[in-house]
Prior knowledge:
The chain is 67% helix and 4% strand. It is mainly alpha-helical.
Amino acid sequence: MSGGAGPLLEKYLALTEEALGRVKPATPLRSFLYGASEDFLSLARAYLSDARHFQKQGDRDRALAAASYAHGWLDAGVRLGLLDGGDDDVRFTPFR
Length: 96
């Protein structure tokens, strides 16, 4: 276990949980892309769940990696326009 994983883990878990609570699908319900937006959300939830599982096992490195993947799915979804993150440029990569 690396020394910095603990503080970073808590930071990224909190950031990702906040981000997940803010996003919603940005595509029309009946569009093909709505399914893609749901996939991005599902993957983010799954990786966040994995992060919590690894954290409970004391594996902070894997927990940090899983939390980072979870947030990456959310960030990519917002950046692509599949997810609506509002105008939040703290939790998501800003648009041009």
